[in-house]
Amino acid sequence: MPPRKLLAVFAALLLGAATLVAAPTQAQAAPNFKAPFPCGQRWTYSHHSAEVRRALDFIRSDGGTTNGTPVLASAGGTAYREYQAGGAGNWIRIEHGGGWKTYYFHLSAYSVANGSAVSQGQQIGVTGSTGASSGPHIHYEQLYNGTGQNIVINGSGLAYPGSYGSYHLTSDNGCSGPGKPFMTWGSDVRVRSTPRLNGSVVHTFGGPTSVRVICQVQGDTVTAEGYTNNWWAKLNSPVTGYMTNIYIDDPNAKLPGVPEC
Predict the structure, then answer these.
(1) What is the model's pLDDT at position 27?
(2) By C-alpha distance, which of 32, 31, 36, 30 is closest to 173?
């Protein structure tokens, strides 16, 4: 082959290789994001048109109290604690890999250390109203390569209503794991560090909440709502601790199918 023709073929091969290298890669598939609040809870959501990114704001619509409810990682990743006094307040950024991130604004408290590896369904904070917020809610975002995306939960895109009450979402985040699932009933139900009335309060359920009970134990006798019971449920999710069986939505004083601790 003549040298000039050989050079032309070689140049064409180089151009083809460069084209292959320069071609844009297909977008990294998003994680299977789940709702950022506990299993079984029902929340309504809205979107403010002034938001820079495609955020949705969530408040409870199941009779429970928004303020103080655990905020859960909607997918696994690495969590970073952030603070912005005039905007997001206390907030968490989770890096999921492949260019995907989620943001959780206005937390009243953090539940993980900065830089912690977190799993889907793990509590990362507590719902609040810090920063530029008019009331307790979860401001939630999904981003890809720094750009806000329309929010997708369990593979389905959510609507973007301008006010609360039009659309609702029931969470299945954190529904799996050890323990038997139950619903609680009543309001302001306290979860304690021990099955004793003098045990420190680690959490309060504002309304009906899905919980997982890993075992039950006899402790202090509790009288409430016309019932008396000395059995306590040890919870695995959405928080860890003990609550009286009185507020577990089951007619039995000792829960069926739950072992003793």
Answers:
(1) 57
(2) 36
